[in-house]
Amino acid sequence: MSQSIVLPKLLEVGEGATARAGEIAIQLGCRRVMIVSDPVMKTLGQVDQLKSFVNQAGVEADVFTDTVPEPTEASILPAVNKVIDGHYDGVIALGGGSVIDSAKAIALLAEYQGRIRDYSVPNIVTSPIMPLIAIPTTAGTGSEVTKVTIITDETNDEKLLCMGPGLIPSAAIIDFTLTMTAPERITADTGIDALTHAIEAYVSGKSGLFTDQQALLAMKLIAPNLREAVNNPDNKDAKEQMMLGATLAGIAFSNASVALVHGMSRPIGAHFHVPHGMSNAMLLPTITEYSIPAAKTRYAECARAMGVLMRVPMTTMQSLHYCWNLSRSIRI
């Protein structure tokens, strides 16, 4: 069976890659962009620095930093109106998954207008959104390379899933230095999220040879570096490998799928406002125990990729002990 693989047109990866944001905007045909971010990135000076990089390339830029952690339609509409009224021709997202999700929805509605519900499943977004450059500041969600966004309808607290190849960002800038100031809790939660993406993409019934390779490499990068990234946040090597691993995990699950951990994690987040990575950590051991009998070899290969053991098949308890111990070691 074949797999349809959807990726950004351009990936810029490495230390200091953010400095090329303006050049990349020009490559995408943009001359006037809206930078979408959040108050934390503004306070840290990252928004002003990004705007400076963009301006130096000869691209005009304005800023919207009123995104919220769980984006709602109401939270993005001011930015949508600003983009339309200001005749902007591109969007640059600087932030974590919520910021990038917000930016995808902003670029969608600014291009085609309407309401978010008009584009939510079972509808599929096939037409490309306004050019979007996604710059993640956490190593976790993989939203910079995925074809999904989730926006809440605040009138009934319903999370609306929008998906389709049209939602893939035009470009992604993967610069691990942006994660160096991330709080311990954010590093831990997003890291578990990324690891879960990789595991679920690999054991998914929609997996294939291409996504398998991304998922396995993501596990090899994330598993041995997550504890170090949390406990020694100045370790640049650990942060770099986490960032690359999170992006590869995003590519894997976006082109395969996630599974039961994420299926159960989303309603927990919606109803109890538990951070997404934390709810994944709560569910991963139990769901792994439940799922292993149906995919013993696949879970064993995950364990080998993560360095848990060097032989197959593994026992259920070995995998569960690893899941529990990893969560405890990073204080989840």
From TrEMBL:
Top-rank lineage group of the source organism: Bacteria
EC number: 1.1.1.1
Domain spans labelled Alcohol dehydrogenase iron-type/glycerol dehydrogenase GldA: 12-175
TM stretches of this protein: none
InterPro entries: ADH_Fe/GldA, ADH_Fe_C, ADH_Fe_CS, Alcohol_dehydrogenase_Fe
Cofactor(s), names only, from the UniProt record: Fe cation
Claim: Kinase is one of the keywords in the record: no
Keyword entries, A-Z: NAD, Oxidoreductase
Domain Fe-containing alcohol dehydrogenase-like C-terminal: 187-309
Matches recorded under Pfam families: ADH_Fe_C, Fe-ADH
Class of enzymatic activity (EC top level): oxidoreductase
GO MF entry, a single one: metal ion binding
Similarity comment: Belongs to the iron-containing alcohol dehydrogenase family.
PANTHER family with a match to the protein in the record: ALCOHOL DEHYDROGENASE (PTHR11496), ALCOHOL DEHYDROGENASE 4 (PTHR11496:SF102)
UniProt protein name: Alcohol dehydrogenase
